[in-house]
Write a structure and sequence with these properties.
The complex is a heterodimer of chains A (299) and B (930).
Chain A lengths: L8 E7 L5 E6 L6 E5 L3 E6 L4 E7 L5 E6 L5 E6 L3 E6 L5 E6 L5 E6 L5 E6 L4 E5 L9 E3 L6 E6 L3 E6 L3 E6 L4 E6 L4 E6 L5 E6 L3 E6 L5 E6 L10 E3 L5 E5 L4 E6 L5 E6 L5 E6 L5 E6 L3 E6 L1
Chain B lengths: L1 H6 L10 H20 L48 H5 L6 H4 L2 H10 L12 H17 L9 H4 L7 H9 L7 H23 L6 H24 L2 H4 L17 H34 L1 E2 L16 E2 L6 H28 L34 H11 L12 H17 L1 H10 L15 H34 L1 H8 L2 H15 L1 H10 L5 H17 L4 H12 L3 H9 L4 H22 L3 H14 L1 H13 L4 H8 L2 E6 L4 H6 L19 H16 L2 H26 L4 H16 L3 H4 L2 H29 L7 H6 L1 H25 L5 H23 L4 H18 L1 H13 L3 H32 L4 H16 L1
Antiparallel strand pairs in B: 1-2
Helix pairs in contact in B: 10-13, 15-16, 15-17, 19-21, 20-21, 20-23, 21-22, 22-24, 25-26, 31-37, 31-38, 33-35, 33-38, 36-37
The chains are: A mainly beta (299), B mainly alpha (930).
Chain lengths: 299, 930
């Protein structure tokens, strides 16, 4: 593919957050976007028209991550108040609060059937919460990490967590085994390919590393951006042909998956790009920044 | 009438009548009350007691200002206490003089009377008076139902009893004992008779005197006997001298003891005379002399009975003295006997029981062999040894046998000690062979030999220390290290010598350029660099290959070129080879698994030496960071991790550790992280041998993984076994259908089977939860919970509906038509299931019906059979599973893409806000379901 087919054209600017925006996520079908930030609010947008639909307020501190269920009826959020909030989208009501983390919660994810929420926390643990029953105790606590867990990804049979101790750990529930891939550098963000064979790990040495999940081999290394002090995001396009990464100088980079060649880079924001999210179907992208804006990019 | 009044003239004040006064008072009271209540303050008037109006204290000085109109009496508002007079009515008191006397007169009456104190109240009159007074007080204090004096006044206590009065009449006097009185009274009566007879007949015969004296003697003896029985001995014979206890001055002179006794008796006689003379002078002829016995009280007067008629006669006294003496003598004899027998002081007797028993500890017995001085043998022996000087050398004796004997014996003595020599000397005194021990033939040689043996022993001790140190020294040497490691370093050393001789200049340059490397490493590298040049001129192809490998070294190749003289054509060829190598490296960065697999066999073909050398170079190079990171990191480790059963349930997976006890939680502390560090260092420092072993370990590690997978998969729950058993039966029935059907149908089948499995799994989970078990293991539990089944089953119906709705929402299947078809097909199954649930039958029957239902479903849905074949095939082997997993992932991804496209179409059609769109979507879903 050529650079022209990549979404590098700004379509809309979503303004409303009164502080840094820490995460921007598409929902399952890509029609709506949820953003959260340091102003302790979660906002629901229609990114294709640049309209703010709803604002959710209950968090006591900054909100670090959000994730929507596949049926678009509920979502979960986490942040500095050490709790995981389970919300109803239409009513804006907090259905339940999951308490148990000893520090800030950095990331949350639903599984495919939306029956379980997995949260990654500052207390070096992954906690699994049950959404079906009314219990507020964690189903399981995974505390084999040696340092903060920054990111978490779920598949049908596995839980994958990336940590600052330099490891990407895969917990296989079918076999009952833990596989620890040590990259030697703090892992900031992890993302899984659409075919489920590869894991993309963003490290704090300004490098993105592509790993084979079955063998743990290093397939490719992507460089050029700056990622040393802040939490930046990385992801793959829906076609698994390109790798996208945000930079601390406000740029967004596109690499070729196979050649590790920088196809294009452009200035998306004036400050740190905190989050990058690609549309599940179309060639559309969301980027959020510390300057409080969310930008929608299209061809 | 008017005219009458004018005529009369009145003088003075008229007399007031009682009626008028009473009416006035009443008016005053009424007025006061009325004024206080009704009239205001400025209308109130001050009135007198009789109701008359008066000024408000103007002339009285304001004394009664607050009295009238406020309180009812002059004293104030204090109410008086009420006392009833019922009790006082009945009381009728007698009047006495005290009632009419004043206090002063009463005091005067009391002062006049005199009374004795309790000490001198001999007659008891004072006590009687006190008791009477006390009784009177009590009478006054307490009320009495019977009027009149209390009986206590009539009855007064008496100080003397009747017994005392009788004794007094019989002759007893206070201060005397009862016994003595009786005896003295009898004697006195007889005395009176005798006296009367004497006075009447002065000139009578002597015989009555002798009779009287005899009777007196008998009485005196009786008295003495009684006294001796009652009183102890030391009271009768008190110690009158000033000698010490047990001392007898008359021990050897009994004569003097008798004289002393006579003196004592004479003193007594003198004592008796004196009081008699005094009494005669005081009391006159009537009183006469006092009888012997206890004295009378000083205050009491002498009675007639107390006089003694025979006081003047000395004869009686002499008899008494003589009688007392033998008793004393007998006592003395007893004391003497006791003293002689028991060796005890006279006057004392030995005690019967002696509690004190002293333990005696004899001094220790000194053994005969004991020597006062302590001799230290040790230091003397030690001192003697160094002082011994080396004996002079002596030639061996002529006899060889003797020589051998002496040498052997010397060694034994040096080992065992001198005792051995002494013992052998004693035993072998008769034996001529051992004459050398007794300064015989060969003694000098023996002494020298012994000295030499001792010196050797000392040297051996030093040698042992040296021997211990030597092996460490040997290890440090290069030769030993090389020998231990193997043959390779020997080869290197030989080559190194040649290279150093040939190229001295080149050896120095790499050291300067690479300061970080050690000398040994640099020398090895130089050798490696030089190797191909000798072989290469003959074969250019090999040379090119070596050059490619050397390019990784970089600087060293140029140095080698300078040193070795090469032709220009060869240099040009080298440059071309370098370019080719660079291109290869660039391509290598973008390599994938396939390229790695192709490259590895090439390395093996090249040979062990080349492979190892390449590895070492790469490790030492610092420029190539990516290659370094690729090999050192990422590093994969595997641990056992146990998911909780609820987590597996939520992900619709069987628990791999079903039936096992939870393991103890492993403690991953900071120490564990520290432990990992030395492992990395060792891995980096690993040499050729270890690198070759690594792939073997990897293969060994892979094998248990496969086994683990097989074991875990083979441990599903009984409920899941039921599902799989049904699938297996289907496989047997229709094995051929799977192969025939096309790919498109396979996808649909896979989706359908997943739906069926999900429904069944959730149904079973709900059953388990409601029954109270996470996963029911045994049939017995189900049989026990039969009565609950009916209620639970009724609850299951809405649960099933809810689950179906959730799944339909969550599923991402393709066409709408297929969904509607499946729903229609499933509806009869659900209805039949409900009927079964409603009926309360055994679990076995239920299972069978479930199986039939599932079979029916499978038969109805022909597409699902082939998908079950896929699942059954997965069981066969782990290798095939991995491949199929990838294929299944690809299929799923394709499904997702299709579903995404369809969703986009739907979303594009909608034009309303999110809330309205959600509502419409829900309505549409409901319509579709209907």
């Amino acid at each position: 593919m050529s650079a022209t087919e990549l979404p590098t054209k700004e379509a809309h600017i979503l303004k409303g957050h009164e502080g840094a925006v820490l995460a921007a996520r598409f929902n399952g079908d890509g029609n709506y976007a949820l953003t959260c930030g340091k102003d302790r609010t979660i906002r629901l947008w229609n990114p294709h028209r640049g309209i703010l639909i709803k604002t959710y307020k209950s968090h006591g501190r900054e909100v670090r991550d959000v994730h929507v269920t596949s049926d678009n009826a509920k979502f979960c959020s986490c942040g500095g108040d050490r709790q995981v909030y389970y919300w109803d989208v239409s009513t804006g009501r907090v259905i339940r609060k999951f308490r148990g983390h000893d520090g800030e919660v950095n990331a949350v994810k639903f599984n495919d059937s939306s029956s379980v929420v997995v949260s990654a926390g500052f207390d070096r643990s992954l906690r699994v919460w049950d959404c079906r029953s009314h219990s507020v105790e964690p189903v399981q606590i995974i505390d084999t990490f040696l340092d903060t867990v920054m990111s978490v990804v779920l598949t049908k049979t596995e839980i994958i967590g990336g940590s600052v101790d330099g490891t990407v750990r895969t917990f296989d529930m079918r076999i009952g085994r833990e596989m620890s891939d040590n990259l030697g550098q703090p892992v900031n963000c992890i993302s899984i390919s659409n075919d489920g064979n590869c894991v993309l790990a963003g490290c704090l040495d300004s490098t993105l590393r592509l790993l084979d999940r079955t063998t743990g081999e290093l397939l490719q290394v992507y460089k050029g951006h700056i990622s040393k002090s802040f939490k930046t995001d990385c992801c793959l396009t829906n076609s698994d042909a390109h790798v996208i990464g945000g930079s601390e100088d406000g740029l967004v980079f596109f690499w070729d998956l196979v050649d590790a060649k920088v196809l294009s880079k452009f200035r998306a924001h004036d400050l740190v790009v905190t989050s990058v999210s690609y549309h599940p179907k179309e060639d559309c992208m969301l980027t959020s920044s510390v300057d409080g804006t969310i930008r929608v990019w299209k061809k | 009438m008017g005219s009458d009044e004018e005529d009369f003239v009145f003088h003075g004040t008229p007399i007031e009548r009682e009626e008028e006064i009473a009416s006035r008072k009443k008016k005053a009271v009424a007025g006061a009350s009325g004024n206080l209540r009704t009239l205001p303050a400025w209308k109130q008037e001050v009135t007198d007691e009789e109701g008359r109006r008066r000024f408000h204290g103007a002339f009285t000085g304001g004394y009664s200002a607050g009295y009238y109109n406020t309180v009812g009496s002059k004293e104030g508002w204090a109410p008086q206490s009420f006392t009833s007079s019922r009790q006082n009515r009945a009381g009728a008191r007698k009047q006495s003089i005290s009632d009419f006397l004043d206090e002063d007169e009463k005091a005067d009456m009391e002062g006049k009377s005199l009374s004795a104190s309790s000490q001198f109240d001999t007659f008891g009159f004072t006590a009687a008076e006190h008791s009477r007074k006390h009784a009177e007080k009590e009478q006054h204090e307490r009320p009495s139902a019977i009027p009149g004096p209390v009986p206590d006044e009539l009855v007064a206590p008496v100080s003397e009893s009747i017994g005392v009065k009788l004794l007094l009449k019989m002759g007893w006097r206070r201060g005397h004992s009862i016994k003595e009185v009786r005896a003295s009274s009898d004697a006195r009566r007889e005395a009176r008779k005798a006296f009367l007879a004497f006075y009447t007949d002065e000139n009578t015969k002597e015989t009555p005197d002798s009779l009287v004296s005899e009777t007196e003697v008998e009485t005196s003896l009786g008295e003495d006997i009684k006294i001796s029985e009652s009183t102890p001995v030391y009271v009768l014979n008190p110690k009158q001298d000033l000698h010490g206890l047990g001392y007898d001055p008359f021990k050897h002179a009994p004569e003097f003891r008798e004289k002393k006794r006579s003196r004592m008796s004479a003193n007594k006689e003198v004592g008796f005379r004196k009081p008699l003379s005094m009494k005669e002078s005081l009391f006159g002829p009537k009183s006469g002399k006092i009888a012997p016995g206890f004295g009378i009280g000083a205050l009491e007067e002498l009675d007639v009975e107390d006089e003694d008629v025979y006081a003047g006669y000395d004869f009686d006294q002499t008899y008494v003295i003589e009688d007392e003496q033998p008793a004393r003598q007998s006592n003395d004899n007893r004391l003497r006997l006791t003293s002689k027998e028991h060796d005890v002081l006279p006057g004392f007797g030995a005690a019967k029981n002696s509690d004190y028993s002293m333990e005696r500890f004899n001094p220790p017995i000194i053994p005969k062999d004991f020597v006062a001085r302590h001799k230290f043998s040790g230091p003397l022996e030690a001192e003697t040894k160094p002082t011994v000087s080396a004996p002079p050398e002596v030639p061996p004796p002529a006899d060889n046998n003797l020589k051998l004997l002496i040498e052997g014996f010397a060694t034994f003595v040096s080992r065992c000690g001198k005792l051995y020599e002494d013992l052998s000397r004693e035993k072998n005194q008769s034996n001529q062979l051992f004459d050398f021990l007794r300064e015989g033939n060969g003694h000098d040689y023996y002494a020298r030999r012994l000295w030499e043996e001792q010196q050797k022993r000392k040297d051996q001790s030093k040698l042992t220390l040296d021997v211990k140190v030597s092996p460490t020294v040997q290890k440090m040497t290069a030769e030993t290290r090389g020998s231990l490691l193997g043959e390779k370093p020997l080869q290197r050393s030989l080559k190194e010598t040649d290279t150093s001789a040939s190229s001295g200049g080149s050896f120095q340059f790499p050291t300067n350029l690479s300061d970080t490397f050690t000398k040994s490493a640099s020398s090895q590298e130089a050798a490696d660099a030089v190797k191909p040049f000798k072989d290469d001129p003959a074969k250019q192809e090999r040379f090119e290959q070596f050059l490619k490998e050397k390019y990784k070294g970089g600087l060293r190749t140029t140095d080698s070129n300078r040193v070795n003289s090469m032709s220009e054509s060869a240099r040009a060829q080298e440059r071309l080879d370098f370019e080719a190598a660079a291109e290869a490296i660039e391509k290598g960065k973008a390599y994938k698994e396939v390229r790695r697999a192709t490259e590895q066999p090439l390395d093996f073909l090249a040979g062990g030496l080349q492979f190892t050398s390449g590895g070492t170079e790469q490790i030492k190079d610092t420029g190539v960071v990516d290659m370094k990171s690729s090999k050192t990191y990422p590093k994969r480790e595997e641990f056992q991790w146990r998911p909780s059963p609820l987590l597996c349930k939520r992900f619709d997976l069987p628990d791999p550790f079903m039936g096992k006890l939870p393991p103890a939680p492993r403690a991953r502390n900071k120490m564990d992280s520290l432990v990992f560090l030395p492992d990395t260092v060792k891995a980096a420092s690993a040499r050729q041998v270890s690198e070759s072993q690594v792939p073997k370990k990897e293969t060994s590690i892979e094998e248990p993984e496969v086994e683990v997978e097989v074991e875990n998969v083979e441990r599903p729950v009984d409920l899941y076994k039921a599902i799989f058993s049904d699938d297996s039966e289907d496989d047997e029935d229709q094995p051929m259908n799977g192969k025939i059907q096309e790919g498109q149908e396979k996808k649909n089948e896979a989706a359908a089977t997943t739906l069926n499995r999900l429904i069944a799994g959730d149904f079973l989970e709900s059953l388990g939860k409601e029954l109270g078990f996470e996963v029911p293991m045994e049939e017995e539990i189900k049989s026990r919970s039969k009565p609950e089944d009916s209620s639970d089953k009724r609850l299951d119906r809405p649960g099933l509906k809810e689950k179906v709705e959730e799944k339909t929402s969550s599923l991402t299947l393709g066409s709408e038509e297929e969904k509607s078809r499946k729903k229609r097909e499933k509806s009869p199954g659900k209805r039949s299931g409900g009927n079964d649930l409603s009926s309360s039958e055994s679990s076995g029957d239920e299972r069978r019906r479930k199986r039939y239902n599932k079979k029916d479903r499978h038969r109805n849905d022909s597409e699902s059979d082939s998908s079950s074949d896929y699942h059954s095939r997965d069981k066969q082997g782990s290798r095939s599973r991995s491949k199929r997993r990838e294929s299944s992932r690809e299929k799923r991804s394709s499904h997702k893409k299709h579903s995404k496209h369809r969703r986009t179409k739907k979303s594009s059609s909608s034009r309303y806000s999110s809330d309205e769109e959600q509502k419409e979507s829900r309505r549409e879903k409901k319509r579709r379901r209907d």
